[in-house]
Amino acid sequence: MVLHAVVLAGGDSATSFSFYLPTKVVFGFGSLDALSAEARALSANRPLIVTDRVMVKTGIVEKVTAKLGDVHFEVFDGVEAEPRLEVAEAVADRVRRDTFDAVIGVGGGSAMDMAKVAAAFATNPGPPKQYVGNNLFARRPLPSIMVPTTAGTGAELTVTSMVTVAGHKQWINSPLLLPSVAVVDPELTITMPKSVTAATGLDALSHNTEAYLSDEANVITDAAALEGIKLVSGNLVKAYSDGNDRKAREAMSLGALLGGIALHARMVYGHSIGYTVATRFNLPHGVSCGIPLPYIIARYAEAVAPKMQKLAEAYGVDAGSREPKKLGEAIAQKVKGILAELGVPRSLKELGVKEADLPNLADECLKTYGRTNSPVVFDAEKMNHLYTQMWQGISE
């Protein structure tokens, strides 16, 4: 999908934006059956499967590759959670060592991120480190198919692959990383453990919400984000409580997919804050982003005042009050309730962060993970105040 539009926003004001999404999406229970046809359409006769050892051990990879028929494939299963640059180097070495004509990513966000860069490294020479940054690939990657097994990252529809470099989160960004096809079958999420359901679901909720709060949001990302928030906030606890709830699993897969679309508006400071605590406390990505989410909503409420009514409605919060600050606090309390039901800490103090460490965390957040798309501009004092609120558990 390629859209170039000017949307009239009332009167003689207008908002211009560009939206690019070339990925074909095949969604729904049983959609994995389409994998063979999609591979044939891409002339994928010798794909590299990029995944992790858990996916191999649990039989998910075998279930996926069984749908490829007589296609000859190889498997790289060296992906780790929150992959380090060394993992990107290993997958680059593997995809360059033999002649592959496609890449298929099977797993959660980390596996799909490494699959996307594998497709790019196959056609672009040089060490992976030189591609950390924005728009650094010169050659079109191999065709790629993403098969998500979690409902969280939306990586099957994003331009980004995340790598950890020297303990810090870094991005490999390029529109060329967008996969050729995303096969999203909620059936593959049924066996997710409760902890993975919670973490990935919070990631999806954070993606949709932060994208909605972004200065780079547009009518397409907003529409995706609001529907994504409605689906995830209304079904995450259900999927967590009963993994066999097929309606909840389907809603979560769709909500995560919509989060991938919404992500084109980019994240705000919720993700940045998450990065500062994730590696220190060995947290799943979704948990590290879910903890700051209620505080971000409350802090951004007045900056995005005209959007708060719809945000409250998407979260299922009584939007009777039209005062943005009150709406923000009400939504924040709803999110804290979700965190509590998932057994996730609701404050940095509960997480184990020491009060004395807050200034260093705030400084890292601003200097390493700045957000030029944030409608709230933070200086050191304001960021320290936000960290203090998160430590105390006060979101108002």
Can you give a write-up of this model?
- The protein is of the alpha/beta class.
- The chain has two domains: 166 residues, Rossmann fold, CATH 3.40.50.1970; 199 residues, Up-down Bundle (Dehydroquinate synthase-like, alpha domain).
- Helices cover 46% and strands 14% of the residues.
- The chain has 16 helices and eleven strands.
- The strands form three sheets. It has a six-stranded parallel sheet, sandwiched between helices. Strands 7-10-9 form a three-stranded mixed sheet.
- Strand 1 and strand 2 form a beta hairpin.
- The chain is globular and about 60 Å long.
- It starts with a strand and ends with a helix.
- The N terminus is likely disordered.
The CATH H-level homologous superfamily of the largest domain:
Dehydroquinate synthase-like - alpha domain
CATH architecture of the largest domain: Up-down Bundle
Helix-strand string:
EEEHEHHEHEHEEEEEHHHHHHHHHHH
What is the average per-residue confidence, as pLDDT, rounded to a whole number? 94
* Overall geometry: globular
How many helices?
16
The secondary structure category is alpha/beta
- Cα-based radius of gyration, to the nearest Å: 20 Å
Query: Termini distance?
Result: 40 Å
- The percentage of residues in β strands lies in 5-15%
CATH fold-type name of the largest domain: Dehydroquinate synthase-like, alpha domain
Number of distinct beta strands: 11
